[in-house]
Specification:
It is elongated and about 60 Å long. Helix content is 33%, strand content 27%. A hairpin with a 5-residue loop joins strand 2 (33-34) and strand 3. The protein has helices spanning 18-28, 79-92, 100-106, 110-118; strands at 4-10, 33-34, 40-47, 50-58, 67-73. It has a single domain, classed as TATA-Binding Protein. Strands 1-5-4-3-2 form a five-stranded antiparallel sheet. The longest helix is centred in the last third of the chain and has 14 residues, at 79-92. With 124 residues, the protein is α+β, with helices and mostly antiparallel strands.
Length: 124
């Protein structure tokens, strides 16, 4: 059975440090997500009666994040289905969270500012 391959780009809300998501997965040994490849996360997402393989690869920087999203499916997917898979991936890794207000407040709090600097771009 041939797999259908779809590609798209996700634009997380900055700041977004993709490597923190990889580290989160690696440190917790989340069995359903593969973080073994540099700048990449891969996981199977249930989709109807089948599973689709989703691969996310960081192409951007913390202030201008860009993620290549590849979907491999045993069945053809509509554009709407691809968008639903992308949206689920965005949600899973907190890509739509606007955390800038936290930084705006936190940098005015000296004890908290050091923590913010260390974890700048963390969305988990």
């Amino acid at each position: 059975m041939a797999l259908h391959l779809y590609e798209g780009h996700l634009h997380p809300v900055p700041p977004f440090e993709f490597e923190y998501s990889r580290r989160f997965v690696q440190e917790r040994a989340l069995a359903d997500i593969d973080a073994s490849q540099p700048h990449t996360l891969a996981f199977v997402m249930p989709w109807g009666a089948v599973g689709v393989l989703v691969t996310l690869r960081s192409l951007g920087k913390v202030e201008s994040p860009l993620v290549l999203a590849q979907i491999q499916s045993p069945l053809p997917l509509t554009e709407s289905e691809q968008n639903q898979i992308h949206n689920t991936s965005r949600f899973r890794f907190g890509m739509d969270e606007d955390i800038q207000p936290l930084y705006t407040l936190g940098w005015d709090d000296d004890p908290f500012a050091d923590i913010l600097d260390e974890w700048y771009g963390y969305h988990q």
